């Protein structure tokens, strides 16, 4: 854990947010050595933060002690270079237990996942996240998606809750997000509340989210091709529309279309891509399943096309 507040460290970042997969060995147990190698590669490539044991990291599949060990490995491997944020979820009691494990492991913050299964009202959701934020000293980002979708008024209340520093949006309703941003801006003027684009392949909607002032985003692509993810990030940040549009057309859109071909591909396809790139992180745990061979071949071709496009772009710049 680093001494600087998480909110300050995430306010002005210079790279994508890295959501590593959790590695498993041949016996199905967590492979901490492979996980450390995965985290180190991402940090060395320019990740702005490491979000361990979140959605891409199969939070749902990890026992509490496994969770603690993986978060601790991320903290040790990053050695304070970038902040480490850990997932926390399920019902309030279990979410608090995972939050305390993350704090004990040295994490810098929490990504609060939606409550398990139940569809709660806004008052109950607010009470849940307030209790979670109060349970540790860790700063908390609330994840909006699935059964945890908030009204603008609820987000204003979240923004005023001690310990809650931001909202990650995995729901994708831009009209709602614009109203949320506006409501917090007017309801809590001067509040430094952070917003994150948390859709499964956030780069595809990066231009749209930037239009409402949301520049932070999670990058699943960074987990397997950090070179492509970082090139896109820099092109988006610098206004290089030609490269942004080329990558959207020939890499990100085909990737999203492939992801739509299978359930759970937001995780299992990413893990397959990490293996394609040379690091054996094992398969996903059930109830997720592995992509079939034809989808792996399609994935490899998409990655190759992305790299070819980057090479052509760099060659053009060198002329």
UniProtKB/TrEMBL annotation:
UniProt entry tagged with the keyword Flavoprotein: no
Catalysis performed (reactions): 5-dehydro-4-deoxy-D-glucarate + H(+) = 2,5-dioxopentanoate + CO2 + H2O
Keyword annotations: Lyase
Cross-referenced SUPFAM superfamilies: Aldolase
Stretch forming the signal peptide: none
Catalytic activity, EC: 4.2.1.41
Biological pathway: Carbohydrate acid metabolism; D-glucarate degradation; 2,5-dioxopentanoate from D-glucarate: step 2/2
Family matches, as InterPro entries: Aldolase_TIM, DapA-like, Dehydro-deoxyglucarate_dehyd
Family named by the database record: Belongs to the DapA family.
HAMAP family: KDGDH
NCBIfam families in the record: PRK03620.1
Protein name: Probable 5-dehydro-4-deoxyglucarate dehydratase
Source organism: Streptomyces silvae
């Amino acid at each position: 854990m680093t001494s600087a507040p998480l909110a300050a460290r995430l306010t002005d970042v210079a790279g994508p947010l890295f959501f590593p997969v959790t590695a498993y060995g041949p016996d199905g147990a967590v492979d901490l050595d492979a996980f450390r190698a995965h985290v180190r590669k991402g940090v060395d490539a320019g990740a702005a933060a490491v979000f361990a044991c979140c959605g891409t990291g199969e939070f749902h599949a990890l026992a509490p002690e496994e969770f603690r060990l993986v978060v601790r490995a991320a903290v040790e491997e990053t050695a304070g270079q970038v902040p480490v944020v850990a997932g926390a979820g399920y019902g309030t009691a279990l979410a608090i237990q995972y939050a305390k494990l993350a704090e004990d492991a040295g994490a810098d913050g929490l990504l609060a996942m939606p409550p398990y299964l139940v569809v709660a009202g806004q008052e109950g959701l607010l009470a849940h996240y307030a209790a979670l934020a109060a349970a540790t000293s860790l700063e908390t980002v609330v994840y909006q998606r699935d059964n945890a979708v908030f009204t603008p008024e609820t987000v204003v209340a979240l923004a005023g809750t001690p310990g809650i520093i931001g909202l990650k949006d995995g729901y994708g309703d831009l009209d709602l997000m614009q109203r949320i941003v506006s409501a917090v801006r007017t309801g809590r003027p001067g509040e430094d509340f952070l917003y994150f684009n948390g859709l499964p392949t956030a780069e595809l909607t990066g231009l749209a989210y930037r239009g409402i002032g949301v520049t932070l985003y999670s990058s699943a692509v960074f987990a397997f091709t950090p070179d492509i993810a970082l090139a896109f990030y820099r092109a988006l940040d610098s206004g290089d529309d030609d490269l942004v549009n080329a990558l959207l057309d020939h890499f990100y859109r085909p990737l999203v279309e492939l992801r739509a071909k299978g359930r759970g591909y937001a995780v299992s396809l990413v893990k397959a891509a990490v293996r394609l790139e040379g690091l054996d992180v094992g398969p996903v745990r059930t109830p997720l399943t592995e992509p079939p061979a034809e989808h792996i071949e399609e994935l490899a071709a998409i990655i190759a096309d992305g790299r070819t496009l980057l090479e052509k772009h760099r060659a053009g710049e060198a002329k």
